[in-house]
Every structure is written in C-alpha cells, then in structure tokens.
Design a protein that fits this description.
Oligomer: single chain
Number of helices: 10
CATH class of the largest domain: Mainly Alpha
CATH architecture of the largest domain: Orthogonal Bundle
Number of domains: 2
Number of strands: 2
Radius of gyration: 22 Å
C-alpha cells in the first residue's frame, strides 16, 4: 500500500459517521436553506420540488421523506426564520452589556428585519398563500399566536431587567409591531419598490412611541 493510499484510508476512518437522526436533520436543514432561496426567487407558484431537491443535492424522494409537499417545506422555511428571530432577541436579553446598550440592540433588531429583502418577499408570500391554502393559513395563524405569546414574554423580561416603560400591554405592542412590519412587507412586495430605510424608520417610529427606556419621552434614537 502506497503512502497516498494509507493517507486516504486514514481520512476515511477519521470521518465521523452520522447517525440516522443527525443525517436527517442535515438533510432537512439543507432543503430548507435551498427552499428559502427558491421561494424568494420564484414564489410558491414558481417553485419546483424537483429543482429544489436537485440543487440541494438530493432526489425528490429525499425531499418527500422530509416534507409532505411544497407547502410543508414553505411552512418549514418560515418557521426556521421565525425561530432565528426569536433566538436573536433571546441573545440580546442574555447579553451582559449595559441596559442602554441592550435597548439599542433591541431597537436595531426590530428595524433590521425591514432591511432584509428576502424577509419582505417571504412575508408577503406567506400572507398571500394563507388566503388560498388551508394548511398555510393554519400555519400563519399559529405563527401569529406564537409570536404574540413568545414576544410578549420576552418584552416582559426586557421590561423587568431594563426598566422599560410600555405605552400598551406587551401583547398589544407585539401585535402592533408585527402587523406594521407585515403590512409594510406586502406593500413593498406588491409595488416592487423596496424602500428599506423608510420601512425601518416607520418600524422604529412605532416602537419608540410604544417602548421607552429611562425617563418617559427619552429615546436613544440614532
């Protein structure tokens, strides 16, 4: 056996063997990532199971082993984005930075989603398809309920830790900010004009009227 062959054999032995669950999790994650790109580019109506599977490096059978249909993959894409958003806010809450710094990080996170063109397109697609598909409608309503519940709980924690002053209940604030961002997403997607800075400014204007840090009326606006 040559040295090259010995090295190749050694590399094969060093490669970790994934268990069934780990392998399936990686497959799902890859399909969700590629699916997200396709839904942003082509929408639900133009996305193709065959093309998503092929670009992800799998067969159609592998996609159907993880998702019943294109709609279920679309819902998984939206849930993945929602989970990442929640993790962002949780990391800010757990940060060891000062209260003022964390408040500014919270504001930036609120405004940041309105500067993500992919998020805008996906939110518009989510709402449009919720009108046509019972499955997506159910997922949309579940997301709204989960966002209100988890968002309100986080806002209460922020208020407790940082001494925030709220102009409405946490549930009302989360609902208002969510409705505004979703409405702005639809308007921009339909018009085809992405006014990202204006949308961010409107989101933060609403936030600053509902949530303050320190003395009432004082906002660390930049």
């Amino acid at each position: 056996m040559t040295q090259r062959e010995r090295n190749l054999k050694k590399r094969k032995l060093e490669v970790p063997v994934l268990g069934r669950k780990e392998s399936q999790a990686q497959t799902r994650a890859r399909l969700i990532a590629v699916g997200r790109e396709h839904f942003v580019r082509f929408g639900m109506g133009g996305a193709s199971v065959a093309k998503i599977a092929a670009e992800a490096g799998f067969t159609r059978g592998a996609l159907y082993a993880n998702f019943q249909n294109l709609e279920e993959l679309f819902v998984a894409v939206l849930k993945s984005g929602s989970d990442m958003e929640l993790l962002t806010f949780q990391s800010i809450l757990a940060s060891t930075r000062s209260a003022q710094e964390r408040f500014q990080m919270l504001r930036e996170a609120i405004g940041a989603r309105m500067q993500d063109p992919a998020w805008i397109v996906l939110q518009a697609e989510f709402q449009a398809n919720a009108l046509r598909s019972a499955m997506i409608r159910e997922a949309f309503l579940e997301q709204q309920a989960r966002r209100r519940r988890d968002g309100a709980a986080l806002l209460r924690e922020f208020t407790s830790q940082m001494g925030l002053v709220l102009s409405a209940s946490p549930e009302e604030i989360v609902a208002l900010l969510g409705s505004l961002s979703e409405g702005l997403a639809v308007r921009q997607a339909v018009s085809g004009v992405l006014e990202l800075e204006q949308a961010r400014a409107l989101s933060l204007l609403c936030f600053d009227r509902l949530v303050t840090w320190g003395l009432p009326g004082q906002h660390p606006v930049q």
